[in-house]
Amino acid sequence: MGIVEQTLKYVTLHNFIDPTKYPISGMIRRVHVIFSSMLAATIQALAEQKSELAKEVIRMEDEADQLYWLIIGQIFLAAQDKAIAKKIGVDDLLHLLGDRMVAKDLEEMADYTESIAKDILGIHELEYRPSEEIIGGIKKMGELVLKLSNESIEAFFAHDVKKANRVIEEVEKLDEIEMRAVDVILAHVEDLRAAISLRSIFSSIRQIAKHCNIIAEISINRAMEETHEICRLEKEEFE
Prior knowledge:
The structure is a single chain. By secondary structure, the protein is mainly α. The chain has a single domain, classed as Up-down Bundle (Methane Monooxygenase Hydroxylase, Chain G, domain 1), CATH 1.20.58. It contains seven helices and two strands; from the N terminus they run ββααααααα. The chain has a two-stranded antiparallel sheet with strand order 1-2. A hairpin with a 4-residue loop joins β1 and β2. α4 packs antiparallel against α7 and α6 packs antiparallel against α7. The protein starts with a strand and ends in a 15-residue tail after the last helix. The relative contact order is 0.12. The C terminus is likely disordered.
């Protein structure tokens, strides 16, 4: 028995004796749901100074890890047997590599979110309350990255090149937001330990965005493997 989907409000359990019963696309989506819940909870934990919420995020990361390894097991079985691949929704064995990369990106995004939760707990232990400007910056950047993660996953499953390109463009804008946040921390946070933790939070959010960028790039590559409006060439151009 294992958790295949969890938010702060509900948990879905399934028996994994037969991993071929679950489509790999559904498993990837479930890792993303867990990550999304984790990131939203970390933002809330910092803004509302809720240490218990940060601790719950750390626990949820274990569930993301378990799902990731279940996906790796599915990929291993599918690579050896085309019948199993078809059963879990894989029509082209070449897609297994992309599936594995996306699953790994999501797992690492959950890891970075766990790091954010630990930094928040450290700040709470210091009894330090960040300024509204800093909390607002973390919230703005975190919510933007959460949006980008949703769009990157949507682009991956829909083979949506335009949406994937929008994600890549938006990720590039985060550098400026992070730099402004660091300037504020250096100028106004006198407690060195708190400053290090806050800088680490912004860095972790930026790393999550980079993984969204990778998923978007994988989405474009997969879309290009199929007939697509953007890469379709009219026959008359060659006549």
